[in-house]
Specification:
It contains nine helices and eight strands. The protein is α/β, with parallel strands linked by helices.
């Protein structure tokens, strides 16, 4: 007589490695790690069917703190690696993580085209408006008059990058903003982002208590500004006109289909060689 076997039940511990995070005490990235683990637990995704890809920076240490298949890529290159993985292995759940410097500066062009291609993957960016790992320089999302860096004592002097506006313009199919101080809400965003087809972008306000101690006040500044997601790009743009950069919620859930070309070979090495024969 065959005894039915219950499916495995995964807990947050199922996704955590034995390595302890070395972030500064109070860093918002701790909560983002927790939010990701909560989301995977909620969805009951087997760890071996999830891949986590990162670039360079404090937040990009995340793959090492998980039991997922991880890839720690070079600076700014998490998205092309994650896109290639998802296109070649559409059966996998693919997440990419990084920071504002990694994602919007050296990786900015990859960010734009990842939104445009709309591959079915989820990108979580932990934004603290500073290069925390390299001692506090201004980042793409730093306010132009921020005086906190010795390299830019009068502020960077250039307009801050607007991640949500850029993602919407470039074609991301799911766009949200969350606060690391609310990991339950963040986990909800990640769950919905994973389940929504196409490229999902989750912008996380994640304070750097070491180089931007004033960001501790973000807890009082964040507010629900996107109460309900819209599937209308024009409406989403109008909402962003009134955004004070602290509005949280799911802004946009598009209806575009995910980009997934066939993985079947359409040619052979020999046939390619024949085309160049003289």
């Amino acid at each position: 007589m065959d005894v039915p076997v219950d499916p495995p039940v995964y807990t947050a511990k199922s996704y955590k490695s034995a390595l302890k995070p070395i972030w500064c005490p109070g860093c918002g990235d701790f909560s983002v790690l927790s939010g990701i683990m909560r989301a995977l637990t909620e969805l009951q995704l087997p760890p071996h069917q999830v891949s986590l890809v990162s670039g360079i920076g404090c937040s990009s240490r995340l793959p090492a703190y998980s039991t997922l298949y991880g890839f720690h890529s070079v600076h700014g290159r998490a998205l092309p690696v994650a896109s290639g993985l998802k296109l070649s292995r559409p059966d996998l759940t693919v997440l990419a993580v990084g920071g504002d410097g990694d994602g919007f500066s050296i990786g900015g062009n990859h960010f734009v085209h990842a939104c445009r291609r709309n591959v079915d993957m989820t990108y979580v960016v932990m934004d603290n408006s500073v290069y925390g790992m390299t001692k506090g320089q201004a980042s793409p999302t730093t306010d132009p008059d921020w005086p906190g860096s010795k390299l830019t004592p009068d502020g960077p002097g250039v307009a801050a990058f607007k991640p949500l506006e850029m993602a919407l313009s470039a074609g991301a199919n799911f766009i949200s903003r969350a606060f690391s101080g609310d990991p339950l809400e963040l986990a909800r965003h990640i769950c919905e982002g994973i389940q929504h087809p196409g490229f999902s972008f989750i912008h996380v306000l994640s304070p750097c208590v070491t180089y931007r101690p004033e960001q501790k006040a973000w807890r009082e500044n964040v507010h629900t500004g996107f109460a309900e997601p819209t599937d209308d790009r024009r409406e989403a743009f109008l909402r962003l006109l009134d955004d004070d950069a602290f509005s949280t919620g799911i802004l946009y859930k598009g209806r575009a289909g995910a980009f997934q070309p066939s993985t079947e070979a359409t040619t052979t090495v020999a046939s390619l060689g024949d085309q160049f024969a003289i």
